[in-house]
Amino acid sequence: CKLWTLDNIIMSNIGSSGRAAGGELEEKVDLTPETDAKLEQSAELAKSGQVKEALAMLAALEKRCRVGNDTSNLIRVCETS
Fold it and tell me: Measured on CA atoms in the order 61, 67, 68, 74, is the torsion positive or negative?
């Protein structure tokens, strides 16, 4: 399990052109509503002692943001983790 830090995210994007394998631009998805809700849910889970569940939720959200090319929300999720 790799812990994503802001430095890891930046380094993994160096040399990335933002283009998919076929040369077309990758689609960017705005996951702000989902990110807002899940960050709040994960905070509540962590406060109630369910830290593993909170981290699992954040890990799934991190992947959705990364695959969806939503960098601003990806950074928010990683900073919260």
Answer: positive
Q: pLDDT (tens digit, 9 = 90+) per residue, 27-44? A: 889 999 999 999 999 999
Q: What DSSP string runs through 53-78? A: HHHHHHHHHHHHHHHTT-HHHHHHHH
Q: Is the pLDDT of residue 6 over 60?
A: no
* Six-digit token string for 62: 């991190």
Separation of alpha carbons 32 and 38, rounded Å:
10
Q: Tell me if residue 19 falls in helix, strand or coil.
A: strand
Rounded (10°) angle between helices 51-67 and 32-47: 160
Task: Give the number of residues written for the chain.
Answer: 81
